[in-house]
Amino acid sequence: MNCRHNKELEYFVTEAKKVTDKGKVASYIPALAELSEDDLSAAVYFTDGTCISAGDVEKAFTLQSISKVLSLALVLIDHGPEKVFHYVGQEPTGDPFNSIIKLETVNPGKPLNPMINAGALVVTSMIKGETNADKIGRLLDFIKKLANNRSITVCGKVAESEFETSMVNRAMCYYMKEHGIFQAEVEDVMDVYTKQCAIEMNSLDLAKIGSVFALNGKHPETGEQIIPKDIARICKTFMVTCGMYNASGEFAIKIGIPAKSGVSGGIMGLSPYRFGIGIFGPSLDEKGNSIAGIRLLELLSANYSLSIF
Ligand code: DON
């Protein structure tokens, strides 16, 4: 992709980088512990097809929780909102992304929203396909279309590393299965989910996907309406209310754009009708969001008046 290095963006990236040592890379998925703490890169893909970047924007990283908003879009296309929201709610939790507590205390078995792990596992169980390979293949094809990049793949090492260790996610699956939220085998859901989280791309691809949401589901390059407008709207609303987990309220006040983070350090954000932004900064704050990524968005939002509120 033709994306030009930009001095102004580089200035903000350099500023934001100063906070990387206040965070830590995720280590509960062993393969993620190998990421380097002081990385920070960003790409901005404007809806007119121009693109600017700063830092090593070709570096690939896994989507982790950013994939949740993309699997949600696919499943909403597959089944429609009424059916999807029968199985997963629409409210923020105020709890960490992997918390199990409200699964028992509120509406037993039904996760509060699709951006927390429990909710995303339900969404993954609803991806259409005969086999696990069909399901992950369909999601990957959808994501390739969103990024307009056929070379996006699943990182086998990260998928395997999470599959071997993800016991709390399994526990939530069993709890939900007990309550009839899904019928699928837990190991099958875990297989698709860990591969979904391990879909790998760089900040340029991520910025481009953000720009599709900025245009309400229409691809700025191909002109194709990939996500129906109503479904893009639902996804963006979840990004605002739950996209940064239990930091979403503060993020909405300080930055004020739809955004979704992942524990590998990625953030996908967007400014409606203007641009999509892809950030990679693996050092995380205590809530699991990229610490320098958030700082960068704070600087950009203040300087370019990005808040939608
Ligand atoms: O299920 C998990 O724990 C990871 N695959 C994804 C979590 C994640 O990215 C949360 N992000 N901040």
From TrEMBL:
Alphabetized UniProt keyword annotations: Acetylation, Hydrolase
Superkingdom, taxonomy of origin: Bacteria
UniProt-listed PANTHER family: GLUTAMINASE (PTHR12544)
Catalytic activity: L-glutamine + H2O = L-glutamate + NH4(+)
Keyword match Membrane: no
Provenance organism: Bacillus licheniformis (strain ATCC 14580 / DSM 13 / JCM 2505 / CCUG 7422 / NBRC 12200 / NCIMB 9375 / NCTC 10341 / NRRL NRS-1264 / Gibson 46)
GO molecular function, one term: glutaminase activity
EC supergroup of this enzyme: hydrolase
Family note: Belongs to the glutaminase family.
One BP annotation, GO: glutamate biosynthetic process
Protein name: Glutaminase
